[in-house]
Every structure is written in structure tokens, then in C-alpha cells.
Amino acid sequence: MATLFGGDDSRTDSSISTAGARMEELLFTDEPADADRASELRRELGDWLNELGVDPDRAYDVMLATYEAIANSVEHAYRDHTDRGTLDIRVLCGAQGRIDVKVTDRGDWATRNSDPNRGRGVPLMRALANTAAVTSDQNGTTVHMIWDAIGTS
Fold this sequence. Notes:
Strand content: 25-35%
Number of helices: 3
Largest sheet: 7 strands, antiparallel
Strand order of the largest sheet: 1-2-3-4-5-7-6
Shape: globular
């Protein structure tokens, strides 16, 4: 893996070969779960998708849904903690356009909020991706979203 941005070990960018198919990977590890970094991560993801030549409409959907997952981690995962906590992001992009995104934190999300103006993030992620799932356990929460290969959705 090649580390980008002058030795910042939190981001890696690599190529993976599996069964003859080439996949590109973008990995952010132990990122601070804060709003300023969330915006930076969205921009870096967009730049990476652009470098790979991902269709701009698809890239926008991936960036928006991923940002929403990050924002949920920032807002909900560590709300009862004294420290901000961290999150990891893994994005795989296949040659045929399949994109697989995982956003993982080590906190615990709130149960359903009674505010009628809240709670639209997960439905938004599900509307933008072909599949989206949110799983939580004692180790944290993972949002896993997949955009199918072009022509298979």
C-alpha cells in the first residue's frame, strides 16, 4: 500500500487483484470523529473517485451517502463519551463500477429519536446505494453500502 499525503498513516490507497479482477482501495483508519474531519474526508473521497474516473452522478451518490454515515458516527457514536472517538472508512472500487463502502466506529448509536425532523440519514443512504445495512454490537457500528456494477442495478 502506498501512503498518501506526506506520510499521513491514516490514509492508504492501493490496488488489489482478486480472481483476475483489479480493485482500487481507499482506506482511512483511526480518523477523528469530528465534523471538520468529516468534511475533509468527503472531499478526499470525491477526489479519489474522480481520479478513478467514476461517473460524476455515481460519485456524488457515494460521497453523499458516505458523508451521511460519517456524520452519524460523529453525532451519535460518541455522544456519551468524554473523548471524540475514531472511525474507519474502507472503499473498494471494481473495474466494472461496483463500489463497496464501510464506515465503522467504536461507539454506540442512539436509539430512535422522537424529533420528527431527525432520522432521515439511514433512509437517505438506502435510497442512494443499491444496498445499505447498519449493524451494531458491543464493539461499535458499521454502515455497509454497495453500489452494483454498472448495468446490473
